[in-house]
Amino acid sequence: MAWIQSHQSLGTHRKTKALRRLLKIKNPTAIGHLHLLWWWCLDNTPDGDLSGIDDADLAEAAEWQGDPKKFVDSLVEAGFIDENSRKLHDWGDYSGKMLERRIRNKERQNEFRMKHRNSYVTVTSPLRNGARVDKNRVYNTSSNIYIDAARERENNDQEKTAGAAGVDEKTGEVFRAYENNVGMLTPIVSGQITGAIAEYTDGWVMDAITEAANHNVRNWRYIQSILERWKREGRKTGKKLVAAESGKINIWPE
Hints:
Helix content is 56%, strand content 9%. By secondary structure, the protein is mainly alpha-helical. Mean pLDDT is 75; it is low at 125-129, 142-147, 161-165 and 238-254.
């Protein structure tokens, strides 16, 4: 579980007082919005870079019900967001240790994979009982030959994703896009994706996955927020807002 430092001086700090005056809110409310935003950033933009995130998404993350632009502009004016870089001010001082742990864990995982990449596995076959072969080649009992393991795994994964799950081809493509760009497809996430496809269409979900990956934010909650924003505000294609391909979403053009 990730966490950030929360200093007792935050309630009386000049920046908090400035934010309170700018938004015309009480001190506990200002502190609450700040922490909700910071917690969201830990999961969705751990480097504190907000340049690729809309004001509406930031306001929603902080559960601010008013004008999103006013909320973000007030954070900038109060000094919680750096104006030029659009990054959380001094974010590394609060989340630096967590980021360092994540980087070390990723490095350890990569080292482990590299160490075992050239290892061998023991296989049992009618021809070579107990033989040790390169793990990148596996024995196919139906054809009595050794085949490329990576290609076989890819085929099996595609069959499991689309076939075993009992989903149509387009849904299977969305599942594979999620696995390739975001992360592991758990039963919970696959159910959420299926529901999103029914509500927004597979094309929208695919585009939302792509946008999240382009922003380097890899979790379903962020993808869901993109879809909700598109439904609420419309999707811009050129200068017009467009509705979903199936016509299930009622979005008016500009």
